[in-house]
Amino acid sequence: MDGMQPSPVEKLKRRLCEHGPMSVAEFMAWCLTANNTTYYRRGNPIGASGDFITAPEVSQIFGELIAVWAITVWQSMGGPRPFVLAELGPGRGTLMHDALRAASAVPTFREAAQVHLVESSSTLREMQGRALASLCKPQWHLSLTAIPETPLIVVANEFFDALPVEQHIYENGSWYKRVVSLNGSDRPSFTTGRLSVPPPELLPSREPREGDILEHRPATAAMMTEIGRRAGSVPVAMLVADYGYERRDYGDTLQAVREHGYTQPLDTPGEADLSAHVNFAEMAHAAKAAGLDIWGPVSQSDFLLSLGLEERLRRLMASASEEQRSALFLGARRLVDPFQMGSLFKVMAITSHGLAAPPPFAETVTAAG
Ligand code: SAH
Q1: Residue pLDDT, tens place only, 74-92
Q2: Which atom of ligand 1 is nearest to the CA of 118?
Q3: Ligand 1 pocket, residue 62 CB under 6 Å
Q4: Strand 255-258 and strand 293-299: pairing?
Q5: Domain range 41-163+219-248+257-351, its CATH number among 3.40.50.150, 3.40.50.300, 3.40.50.12710, 3.50.50.60
Q6: Whether the Cβ atoms of residue 343 and residue 337 lie closer than 8 Å to each other
Q7: Does residue 56 have its Cβ closer than 6 Å to ligand 1?
Q8: pLDDT tens sequence across 153-194
Q9: Domain definitions of the chain by residue range
């Protein structure tokens, strides 16, 4: 029967014939999470045998330093017990595993932490459960809104890039929605849809030129509004690590990745990972509008080095075998090397208004002070 299955492009064509053009965000959602055959629902995309690799999979130090961050933030909240330690899109569960293992050095934190995971893929939920079985009993949700209303520390690594973006395209002096359509041809393509109004606060100061594209991610504002609402009654802190840009800018950053290489987003819809760079200016704007404080973004390299990556690496190397030593070193270097993950990846913290500056943004406080 397998031979009878329509190809991914055929499925997309059928969808477009039945329902008409899709916006870029609708297309991303359709490819990634819309049904059980789509990308994030199918299997495990992450790791050497998957389509892409992420920071926690590169080095255990990533999750360990996130634990240092979370413990410091929890202390600045006054050490609430219990509190929710949440992760959005935990992948294989590696980050949370490394963080909880490292956090066992602070038993009061570990005992107070209730682990909640936001994950849409059932395959990945199972992997996360296995990875964390010896450390905690996590609770899973489809959205942040379902997490209990207690003090909250949230971590999101390479989560926002997977959330759908809308694209607006500037043509003949006006903005239009960019859509995926058949447009009278046999193959789906990106075309110009209806007149649209991009969010004015996201427009760069330079006037748009013909063909400029402006991206915006509707889920960002929704998520920040939810965090801001919670911050009205409980302390909240969130750490977002992702690849992206800090300044308002034009550009089409939608990308498809399959088996560690780039492909065209329309070639194998639902079978390649689709993502778009995170617009940190949009996130900062939405967080501020929700009454939250923002810190950074800083480069992933600055973040990890300030939190003590080198010291942690030295300690791990001291007790490692020759072979482990080179893997530890290469992994750590990959995280901070500007030609690898060090500068494209950025880290931003978002906290309840008035909470102490989280590390590394609190560096100005010295022991002498
Ligand atoms: N944080 C992990 C995985 C990144 S991949 C790591 O660093 O390795 C993106 C993760 O987000 C996957 O776990 C994916 O299943 C999940 N995800 C993507 N879109 C989602 C959505 N809309 N709701 C919940 N989880 C989602």
Answers
A1: 999 999 999 999 999 999 9
A2: 24
A3: no
A4: unpaired
A5: 3.40.50.12710
A6: no
A7: yes
A8: 999 999 999 999 999 999 999 999 999 999 888 899 999 999
A9: 41-163+219-248+257-351
> Is a pLDDT exceeding 50 seen at residue 368?
no
Q: What's the CA gap between 339 and 242, in Å, rounded?
A: 16
Which residues partner with 114 through β-bridges?
84
Could you tell me the two tokens for 223?
């998520």
Between 40 and 103, the more confident residue is 103
| Spatial distance between the Cα atoms of 341 and 334, rounded to a whole number of angstroms | 6
Secondary structure of 67-115 as H, E, C letters:
HHHHHHHHHHCCCCCCEEEEEECCCCCHHHHHHHHHHCCCHHHHHHEEE
Task: Show the tokens assigned to 139.
Answer: 């609770």
Please say if the pLDDT value at position 130 is more than 80. Answer: yes
3-state secondary structure 191-216: EEEEECCCCHHHCCCCCCCCCCEEEE
DSSP string, 119-155: ---HHHHHHHHHHHTTT---EEESSGGGS-SS-EEEE
Tokens of 265: 């987003």
For ligand 1, is residue 38 a contact (CB within 6 Å)? no
Cα–Cα distance between 148 and 114 in angstroms, integer? 10
The reported pLDDT for the residue numbered 37 is 64
